Amino acid sequence: MNDRIRQAGRFIQGAAQQTFRDRDDDMQRKGFTSAAGISLRRIQEKLDLFKEQMKGPGLTKAEQMVYTQLDELKSEIEADFDRYWRRTGVDWRPPKPVAKGVIKQPGSPQ
Description:
mainly alpha
């Protein structure tokens, strides 16, 4: 009887340890994804501003160089992240925002 109790105890202990490891791995992936999203979002915001300026009078030569450098930097960072997470099956990329603002229907109360 004592042997069965020990086996059950080891099984429960192993299951608990695996649960903690899984939780820690999940937290690491979520943390990395959040950090990646923060850094890439700032670069993307700058790129988006330059793209908006391109629709108008255009960019100066200096702005074009900055745009190109930012775009290359973003691509390099993403490639580094891809290499880091390769063979893990983890999609590190932060989810794309669903909406940028609230849409109000005409005539609805403010």
